[in-house]
Amino acid sequence: MDKGFHLRINFIFFLLLLFCGAVLAKAAYLMLIPSKRLETTLKRQFRAEPAPQPLRGVIVDRNNEPLAMSIRVRSIYANPRKIKRKKKIAKLLAKALGKERRKIFKLLNQDKGFVWIKRHLSRLEEQRIRDVLDKDRRLNLVLGFAKESKRMYPNGQLAANVLGFTGIDGRGLEGIEYQYNNTLASTDPDEVSNTIILTIDKATQNTAETELKKAIVQHKAKSGVAVIMDAETGDVWAMASYPTYNPNNFRSSNPDHRRNRPVTETFEPGSTVKALLIAGGIEDEFLSSRSRFYCEKGKMQIGRHWIRESSKDHKWKWLSTSDIIRVSSNVGATKVGIHIGKDRVYHWYKMQGLTQKTGIDLPGEARGVLKPHNVWSDINFSNITFGQGLSVTAMQMTQAFATLANLGFKVKPRIVSAVMDKEGDPSEPKPIHLERVLKERTVRIMTQMLRRVTSEGGTGVQGSLPGFYIAGKTGTAQVATPSKGYTDGKYITSFAGFAVDTKPKFVGYVAIREPQGKAPSGGSVAAPAFARIMSAVLARAGVAPSVLPELKNEISSIEKDVTKEKDEPKEAPTTVVRIKEMPNIQGLTAREVQDIFSQQDIRLRVKGSGVVREFFPKFGEELSPKQRVSIFLGEEEVVTQ
């Protein structure tokens, strides 16, 4: 074998030794010297990291004050299939996270390549986990952090029932978060999505929530709602519900507290609907403000039922339409309804938005219930004229009174004014939807009548505001229990009203369910809360109070203008509504009977002295014009129940 062959063999052997040495050196380096690049490579081989979660869009109020936003957080996950020391790792993680070791071990003991250990870590939790990983870098092969987005509500409970909340995956579950989920969601992890601009005013919302809670606590009530809206634009400045919750910790809240009650909850509105009843009658020209109705001295029998006033002291005889509103007479409302007719009452309730969805851009809006007029019994009809026997939402009542505040135009409420894209360019403002429902002269007459409610002698004096004319109506409705009728001592008290001749034209509605105390009413419970909220929003909008003259009766002059347009006599006549059915006059004196029929086309025949013991036609029978009514008096007073 020649010398050259041995040299080649030796050279090849040297190369092999050199290669093996390099491999061993590299292996020793990889095993002993930490490498972030290698750790990243190994992590990719052992498990797939979840993609970073995009940041959800911001929700702001009408002044760009943030109400909901998203922040970057870390979540910790594991690859159970690659973990061998499961009990030990479970112990380390439990200590760092403050969780039960048993629960973490259960997660690690699964035959999976990926499990979440904890989502949305706090900064302290994240640092504790990093300390664990730094002490044993091998854990980086089986544990890891994921970048995620966490929804934050910087004002806590403020507007919580309107905003709603998101789930752990960032998807909207209730409220604006749900309604505008696709608009707020983003597909790009590096960019923030669109911004939702609400019509809500943060300061007004805070006042509404504060005053609503104060009234509920003061009167030991069950729940309540408050709404403030611009009657011209439909912009909702405040929408409050109580009880409420903190959306930052919604899992620990009561589901009932998360309801957006002004939109989703229905109830019987009570006497606030008397304003809508009479507005329809004036629009149809069946009524004037001075039409007079005999109110049966406080109680009226319909079949085997009795309609009574809210107080035994209210023994009214003749009341004008305006006075029926001012003192909130149930018998008077019944007489008005009978005069107008079932079909027209039904028509005007519907036209003014009762039991019709308002179309506000919030989820879960309820419609309410009003049965067709052709199935109303006489007692149902009577109840419906003063707000029992039908159900509505607070938003519907706000919209109906906004029609009166806005010269007869019904406006569609809105809670979102615009959407701002990623570049900061706002969308076109949402259009204002208006529909003419009542003539201007009708609402001018109604406004003057509703002003008397908040003036001396009216039921809503506590809803008045110094320096402003407030037109409003109180409501006190018995609480209906399914299949059990009405519950004694349980009421829903409410107040609806608006500031007259202001810009903006704010309308407000407050309803408080089941207040405690002696004879709670809309005037004593809801009206004061309305006044405090309305005062704050007027100040917020820069509407200053002024020195106002005493309330004078301007209704006649308004009606004079109406008749002028029709080329009728300048003075609007006082209308006495004909009594169509024989009233119950048992036990009345002759003078009281003459007072009832003094302005009726009836021939009255009276015999005897004392009080009425018998009369013909009988109670409830139809009375025709020029009919003879025979009254027989006796010494013994007969009282019927």
Summarize the structure.
By secondary structure, the protein is of the alpha+beta class. It has 20 helices and 20 strands.
Write the layout of secondary structure elements.
Elements: H1 3-32, H2 36-46, E1 59-60, E2 66-78, H3 86-97, H4 101-108, E3 115-118, H5 123-135, E4 143-152, H6 160-163, H7 175-179, H8 181-184, E5 195-198, H9 202-218, E6 223-230, E7 236-242, H10 261-264, H11 273-283, E8 292-294, E9 299-302, E10 305-308, E11 318-320, H12 321-327, H13 330-340, H14 342-351, H15 378-385, H16 394-405, E12 409-411, E13 416-420, E14 434-436, H17 440-453, E15 470-481, E16 485-499, E17 506-513, H18 522-540, H19 555-565, H20 590-597, E18 603-607, E19 611-616, E20 628-634
Parallel strand pairs: 1-5, 18-20
Antiparallel strand pairs: 1-2, 2-3, 2-4, 5-13, 6-7, 6-17, 8-11, 9-10, 12-14, 15-16, 16-17, 19-20
β-strand amount: 15-25%
Largest sheet report? 6 strands, mixed
Number of discrete helical segments:
20
- What is the straight-line distance between the termini? 141 Å
Overall form: elongated
Low-confidence stretches: 561-573, 636-641
Kindly describe this structure:
This protein has helices at 3-32, 36-46, 86-97, 101-108, 123-135, 160-163, 175-179, 181-184, 202-218, 261-264, 273-283, 321-327, 330-340, 342-351, 378-385, 394-405, 440-453, 522-540, 555-565, 590-597, and strands at residues 59-60, 66-78, 115-118, 143-152, 195-198, 223-230, 236-242, 292-294, 299-302, 305-308, 318-320, 409-411, 416-420, 434-436, 470-481, 485-499, 506-513, 603-607, 611-616, 628-634. Mean pLDDT is 86; it is low at 561-573 and 636-641. The longest helix is centred in the N-terminal third of the chain and has 30 residues, at 3-32. Helix 11 (273-283) crosses helix 14 and helix 17 runs antiparallel to helix 19 (555-565). A hairpin with a 5-residue loop joins strand 6 (223-230) and strand 7 (236-242). It is an alpha+beta fold. The termini are far apart. Strands 1, 2, 3, 4, 5 and 13 form a 6-stranded mixed beta sheet that branches. A 5-stranded antiparallel beta sheet has the order 7-6-17-16-15, with helices on both faces. Strands 18-20-19 form a 3-stranded mixed beta sheet, with helices on one face. The radius of gyration is 37 Å and the shape is elongated.
